[in-house]
Amino acid sequence: MNGMATAGTPAQIDLIASGRCPACAELRPTWTLLRGHPCPRCGVAGSDDPAALDTLHRAIGERLARRRPWIYGPVCVGALLTGPLPLLASLVTLVGLLVGRHTLVRAALPWLSPRRRVCTRFTLRLWLMVAALVALVAHEVLTLVPVVGPFLKVGVALGTTALYIEGALGFVAGRLRKDGRSTDLDAWEWLVPVGLLGTFVAAGGFGVLATLWAWDQLDAAGGWVAGLVRGWLEN
Q1: Considering the entire predicted model, what is its pTM?
Q2: Residue 18 and residue 27: Cα distance in Å, rounded?
Q3: What interhelical angle do 149-181 and 114-142 show, nearest 10?
Q4: 202-218 pLDDT, tens per residue?
Q5: Contacting residues for 191 by C-beta, under 8 A, at least 6 apart
Q6: 109, exposed or middle or buried, with CB in 10 Å at 0-12, 13-18, 19+?
Q7: Cα three-residue angle 74-57-126, rounded to 5 degrees
Q8: What contacts 114, CB < 8 A, 6 or more positions away?
Q9: What is the distance between the alpha carbons of residues 155 and 176, in angstroms, rounded to a whole number?
């Protein structure tokens, strides 16, 4: 059985979006499915029709979109419950970022060609670190804001989590479209990780200083939160 699969029926599109051959349903390296590579089992290649590929891209995006509420909802609830205390809302946000990375972003990366996938993965790891540090700084500053601070932390937690996930998925989608034209890397694809690495180093230093400053302010304001945390750590 050889030739080119049309990959145009809903069943075929669903199979390809699941990482399977549209003809025999055999699991395949996902990046080969969008580039006309023949299936190692049945010999049928994927479709090279642009309209069919656009439909496949949308199908892949829709499968990932269905998972978003299961990340954004718990992040909002967790940030609301932990908002009055320092560091905990930052921890909730970090967990949301990591869950988003493992359940959404990593699921999109295998569609990229091997070299572009490696470069994109490195870029998005640095993007995750930057998002986490921005959330840390914002959360610890808002700890000092009375009444509305905990509610603002919900916006920070949701905003930074969505910024990372939507930005990462949008970046992967753009690289996937580029892959359709050429698998050669552009020079800027290496420059972006370098720029993010510099941002991460700068944000890391500022984040540490902001956390220490917030802790000192809490101590000076009465120290009940700091004393509570110290007592919990000692016990």
Answers
A1: 0.69
A2: 8
A3: 170
A4: 777 777 777 777 767 66
A5: none
A6: buried
A7: 55
A8: 31
A9: 31
pLDDT tens sequence across 77-97: 999 998 888 889 999 999 999
CA distances from 202 to 19, 41, 90, 197 (A): 39, 50, 18, 9
Which residue bears the tokens 């940030």?
79
> Which residues are 44's β-sheet partners?
3
3 state DSSP class of 137: helix
Helix, strand, coil percentages for the chain (3-state, nearest 5):
75, 5, 25
What one-letter code names the amino acid at 95? V
Q: Which two tokens stand for residue 104?
A: 């959404």
CB 141, CB 210: distance < 8 Å: yes
36's CB contacts (< 8 A; 6+ apart) are 4, 45, 46, 47, 48
